């Protein structure tokens, strides 16, 4: 699988080798710390160490960091998320992975079914079912260490393909369909076709299946994420630590009826000692009231349009038959015509080119945390930051095509 356009593979590899050498030579301290390195916190839409979060967490740690019971901030955050996403009942976790895990457990408890439907190219975290996808034509565990029976509990459908989804639901054994409103991360960005979400909601209801929308990477488009943008009506919404500015936190909202199922006497396998802890709650309250506000979304969406325009201009100037991505503050490119499904998206992946793009940008002061997912303009960004990205991106395309 390779990008469309007349690109020499040797040229890509030569440029990549040169950029990697430059990257390593300029960072001896980083190389020395690799053995101690921790995974990168990619939840940087709020920026790094925003003052309101630093203040809120500092004040809270002085009052106490764990009480084993919810505090007032947790109640406030639940109320606020209910207002943003239109679901009345909220539970807290420490990550979106755990929020998605609990959504699946809740769905299984309510429906008495086992199977979860995911879409090819998904990423919902590193829980058992979340590391299962298509490997060629078969459902398979993509990483080691999962239980042998996990593939029997997952069915893979295609985003934007109503017929494939219907076939996945027809056996009547599906507890939950878990999806992003627009698919991100592993497949750049797949936008929903007109009518896709309406069909998804109608089919899940017809076959007695619950529907969960994962907003972890799509919340950036507005106060109610893509759920509000597309006017969705899911049974569950999940979200990750970005809602607390990168402080460990996750949450999921459910309908009133599902909220009743989460009562302690219903004994659904949920909960954790640190869930809803006061530090996370304080950070989330500060993020939601002082960082993730209307002006911030307007600012990042405007810069996202500027970014997309710049990427489009660079693609046009290079003569490559690529397609720009536009999704609020999120942009990037497809290495060919825009695909509709995960299967089509993977036919346009190009790991060598994506690797080159990442290190090329890094050597010019731009770090993309998720290789290939495409850039997202964060709240602290300026027009100059966007222009810096566009300049570096355009220079790479010229180096590739000259």
Quick recap:
With 402 residues, the protein is an alpha/beta fold. The protein has 14 helices and 13 strands. 43% of the residues lie in helices and 13% in strands.
Tell me the layout of helices and strands.
Layout: H1 9-25, H2 28-33, H3 51-63, H4 72-85, E1 89-93, H5 96-111, E2 115-119, E3 132-135, E4 138-141, E5 154-157, H6 162-169, E6 174-179, E7 183-185, E8 188-190, H7 196-206, E9 210-214, H8 225-230, E10 236-239, E11 250-254, H9 256-261, H10 278-291, H11 294-318, E12 323-324, E13 333-334, H12 342-346, H13 351-362, H14 383-401
Parallel strand pairs: 2-5, 2-6, 6-9, 9-10
Antiparallel strand pairs: 1-11, 3-4, 7-8, 10-11, 12-13
Helix pairs in contact: 1-13, 3-10, 4-10, 6-7, 11-14
Protein model, in words:
The structure is a single chain. This protein folds into 2 domains: 122 residues, Aspartate Aminotransferase, domain 1, CATH 3.90.1150; 227 residues, Aspartate Aminotransferase, domain 2 (3-Layer(aba) Sandwich), CATH 3.40.640.10. It is 43% helix and 13% strand. The protein has 14 helices and 13 strands. Helix 3 runs antiparallel to helix 10 and helix 4 packs across helix 10. The longest helix has 25 residues.
Primary descriptors:
402 residues; alpha/beta; Aspartate Aminotransferase, domain 1; Aspartate Aminotransferase, domain 2; 2 domains; seven-stranded mixed β-sheet; two-stranded antiparallel sheet; 13 strands; globular
């Amino acid at each position: 699988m390779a990008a469309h356009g007349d690109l020499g593979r040797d040229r890509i590899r030569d440029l990549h080798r040169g950029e990697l050498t430059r990257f390593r030579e300029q960072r001896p301290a980083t190389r020395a710390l690799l053995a101690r390195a921790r995974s990168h916190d990619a939840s940087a839409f709020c920026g790094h160490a925003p003052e309101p979060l630093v203040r809120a967490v500092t004040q809270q740690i002085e009052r106490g960091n764990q009480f084993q019971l919810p505090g007032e901030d947790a109640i406030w955050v639940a109320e606020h998320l209910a207002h943003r996403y239109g679901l009345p009942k909220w539970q807290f976790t420490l990550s979106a992975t755990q929020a998605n895990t609990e959504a699946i457990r809740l769905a299984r408890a309510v429906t008495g079914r086992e199977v979860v439907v995911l879409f090819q190219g998904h990423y919902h975290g590193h829980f058992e079912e979340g590391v299962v996808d298509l490997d060629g034509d078969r459902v398979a565990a993509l990483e080691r260490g999962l239980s042998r029976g996990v593939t029997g509990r997952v069915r893979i459908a295609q985003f934007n393909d109503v017929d494939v989804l219907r076939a996945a639901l027809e056996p009547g054994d599906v507890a939950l369909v878990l999806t992003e409103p627009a698919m991100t991360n592993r497949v750049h960005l797949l936008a929903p076709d007109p009518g896709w979400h309406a069909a998804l909601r109608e089919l899940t209801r017809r076959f007695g299946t619950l529907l969960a929308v994962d907003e972890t990477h799509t919340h950036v488009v507005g106060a109610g994420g893509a759920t509000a943008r597309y006017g969705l009506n899911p049974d569950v919404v999940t979200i990750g630590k970005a809602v607390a500015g990168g402080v460990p936190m996750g949450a999921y909202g459910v309908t009133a009826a599902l909220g009743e199922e989460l009562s302690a006497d219903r004994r659904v396998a949920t909960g954790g000692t640190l869930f809803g802890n006061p530090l996370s709650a304080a950070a989330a309250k500060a993020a939601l009231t002082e960082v993730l506000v209307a002006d911030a979304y307007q600012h990042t969406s405007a810069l996202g349009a500027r970014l997309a325009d710049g990427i489009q201009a660079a693609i046009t100037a290079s003569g490559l038959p690529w397609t720009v991505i536009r999704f609020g503050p999120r942009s990037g490119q497809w290495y060919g015509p825009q695909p509709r499904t995960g299967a089509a998206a993977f036919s346009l992946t190009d790991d060598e080119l994506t690797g080159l793009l990442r290190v090329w940008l890094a050597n010019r002061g731009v770090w993309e945390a998720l290789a290939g997912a495409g850039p997202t303009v964060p709240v602290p960004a300026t027009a100059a930051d966007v222009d810096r990205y566009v300049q570096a991106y355009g220079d790479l395309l010229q180096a590739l095509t000259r």
